[in-house]
Design a protein that fits this description.
Elements lengths: L4 H4 L1 H31 L3 H10 L3 E4 L6 E3 L3 E4 L1 H6 L2 H16 L2 H4 L5 H18 L25 H7 L27
Parallel strand pairs: 1-3
Antiparallel strand pairs: 2-3
Length: 189
C-alpha cells in the first residue's frame, strides 16, 4: 500500500498548501481589483454593477469549477479566477451579481435548477456584452453553439421554456466558464 502524499513527504504537502493559499490570494486580489475598477469607472454601467458587486460577500470554494452565487455570497474557484484576464474577471463578477439583481433566485420557483441557471445565463450574458464587458470563452449566449436557434433579448422564464429537454442538464463550458450549471440556485456549489 502506497502512503499518501503528506505521509510520504510532508514538505510537498506544505508546498502544495502554500501554492493553494497563493492562488486564493491572487484570485481574491483579482476580484477586488475588478470591483475597484467598477467603482472607479465613469460610465453609468460601471456604477450600476459596482453597487451590486459591493453588496455580496466573496468566498473561495475549491469544490466548484467556476463561480456561483446564492444571492448572498459569490463563491469562486481560485484557479478559475486566476486564469482570467482582469477584464474577464470584471465580467464574471458582473455575471454573478446579475443573478440576484434580476431576482433569479426567487423567480426560479419549482424549475429544475441547472436548466434555470442556463436560462438565466442566456438572459444575462448578452446584457454584459452589450455593456462593453468581455466574458471568458465558453460563456453561454443565445444565437451561439447549442443555443444557436434561440433569439437574443428574452427573459430567463422565456429561455427556460425554449430549452429542449436534452439541454436541461448542466453542460460545462469548454473552460468551466459561467453557464456551466453552477451559477446560481439554492446551493452555491
Amino acid at each position: 500500500m502506497q502512503a499518501s502524499l503528506s505521509e510520504a513527504d510532508p514538505f510537498e504537502a506544505i508546498e502544495a498548501q502554500a501554492k493553494r493559499l497563493r492562488c486564493e490570494d491572487d484570485a481574491a486580489k483579482k476580484l477586488t481589483n475588478a470591483r475597484s475598477l467598477l467603482v472607479l469607472g465613469r460610465s453609468p454601467s460601471h456604477v450600476f454593477f459596482a453597487t451590486l458587486a459591493l453588496k455580496l460577500k466573496y468566498v473561495p470554494d475549491w469544490k466548484i469549477e467556476t463561480a456561483a452565487t446564492n444571492g448572498i455570497e459569490v463563491r469562486y474557484n481560485p484557479e478559475f479566477i486566476a486564469r482570467l484576464t482582469q477584464k474577464q474577471a470584471m465580467a464574471v463578477n458582473i455575471h454573478e451579481v446579475m443573478h440576484p439583481a434580476l431576482g433569479h433566485h426567487w423567480r426560479r420557483g419549482e424549475r429544475e435548477p441547472a436548466a434555470w441557471n442556463i436560462a438565466g445565463d442566456l438572459s444575462i450574458n448578452p446584457q454584459i456584452k452589450d455593456a462593453g464587458f468581455e466574458l471568458p470563452p465558453g460563456a453561454l449566449f443565445p444565437g451561439q453553439g447549442p443555443y444557436a436557434k434561440l433569439p437574443v433579448g428574452l427573459s430567463a422564464e422565456e429561455y427556460y421554456r425554449l430549452l429542449p429537454q436534452n439541454q436541461q442538464k448542466p453542460k460545462p463550458g469548454p473552460n468551466g466558464t459561467p453557464g456551466d450549471g453552477q451559477g446560481e440556485g439554492d446551493d452555491p456549489g
